[in-house]
Design goal:
By secondary structure, this protein is an alpha+beta fold. It has two domains: about 30 residues, no CATH class; about 55 residues, SH3 type barrels (Roll). It contains two helices and seven strands; from the N terminus they run ββααβββββ. Strands 1, 2, 3, 4, 5, 6 and 7 form a seven-stranded antiparallel sheet that branches. A hairpin with a 2-residue loop joins strand 5 and strand 6. The radius of gyration is 14 Å and the shape is globular. The relative contact order is 0.18.
């Protein structure tokens, strides 16, 4: 796998989706080349509120149950919660709510 990069929402690349997440160096070229056309029900205020809790402990209640861990990433379509060293990528439609742990 190629080197990993961090995206922190800066305008370093117009082709990258907003959020804070890790990506490979291939992602900007893939996005530029393919210019994916898909729709996501982005809730900017909710995403922004989630980003305020980055690197903090959260309890995330999903339709399948509850997880507690550190919020280590938030993209336009999912959050990343790290629980005991394991990264969980949870799509937003599955999140009922989150709160400080």
């Amino acid at each position: 796998m190629d080197e990993m990069n961090n995206h922190r929402g800066e305008k370093e690349s117009e082709s990258l989706p907003p959020g804070v997440y890790v990506y490979t160096s291939e992602l900007p070229e893939m996005m530029e080349k393919n210019q994916p056309s898909y729709s996501i029900n982005l809730e900017p205020v909710w995403l922004n509120h989630l980003l305020m809790h980055l690197n903090k402990d959260l309890q995330v209640v999903t339709v399948s149950g509850t997880l507690e861990g550190k919020l280590t990433g938030a993209a336009v379509d999912h959050l990343q919660l790290t629980v005991q060293g394991i990264d969980y990528h949870i799509r937003y439609p599955h999140v009922v709510y989150f709160r400080k742990a």
